Amino acid sequence: LLFPVSNLCGKCRPRDTDLLQPSLNFLYWSLHQTTPCSQQRAVAVLLSNVSLLELLQKVLECTWLWSPPSEPAYLSPEDALLCSGWLLVASLLLYQHRYSTEVHQTLSLDLTEVLNAVIFRKKKPVLLLVSIMQFLRAVLQQNFSSSLLVIIGQNTAQGATQPQPSSLQDAALHPLAMRQVFSLVVSLQNLLVHKDLLLSQAVVACLETLVEYLYVKNQDVALHVASQPWHRFLLFTLLNGGQKSFLQPEVLRLMTLFLRYQSSNIISQKEISQVLQEAAEADLAELPEATSRALHLFLCQV
């Protein structure tokens, strides 16, 4: 089925949402719900379809062209298509890298536009933000070096006008700039305050990947970002005062992140003791899978 469905997508226009949206969803789940052997073949089939990749390029570009709905919570057919497009491209980036699949057609994206979609949001629905963050995680994990993706729109002239230390940091973080990093971190923090489960999971995962990327590029910058005092305020904002408030997956993952990068001004011995106390009193067998996994990572980090 991958052959006819992917060929059908390649013949469509981005406005053909009724046909494209379920078709892209089918391609997405075909990649994820299959055996590793079949997965490698499926990736090869999709990446060899030039017309499909050209269509995906047009769909992603519509993210900045289509006007947002009046209500940000409303997922229009256009937004649903954009979600499917971003998730499919993120998956193709991931599996192309895993299997070193040959690429017949590259995708090009303006990194500034992608970052601004998260930083400024402009009434984008939650699911679309989550989908774009999945894509952003994929490119960060690959250090912006995927053979499937070409990053364009780097404003090198602006970097040249900054003070020398900033220029050196920007060069180390390329293609990101320091101002983009801090704007993105602040935006991710603000999104966490909404306490939407799906959004929180995506934001924390994106923040984890971003700091990992920064640590590889420039350890001083990564440690500086991880130790921002605002993180401590964010942490206590997320704690709802419930009996097991520290055993929320996003709280545990955030605390693990700060511990990993030795942010002692964010996480104190008192908070660590509180987590251990709540874990000791909890019925571990009844904890949700996401909480158990996050608690395991936290304890390993401690």
From TrEMBL:
Top-level taxonomic group: Eukaryota
GO BP field: meiosis I
Coiled coil: none
Protein known as: MEI1 protein
Organism: Calonectris borealis (Cory's shearwater)
Gene: Mei1
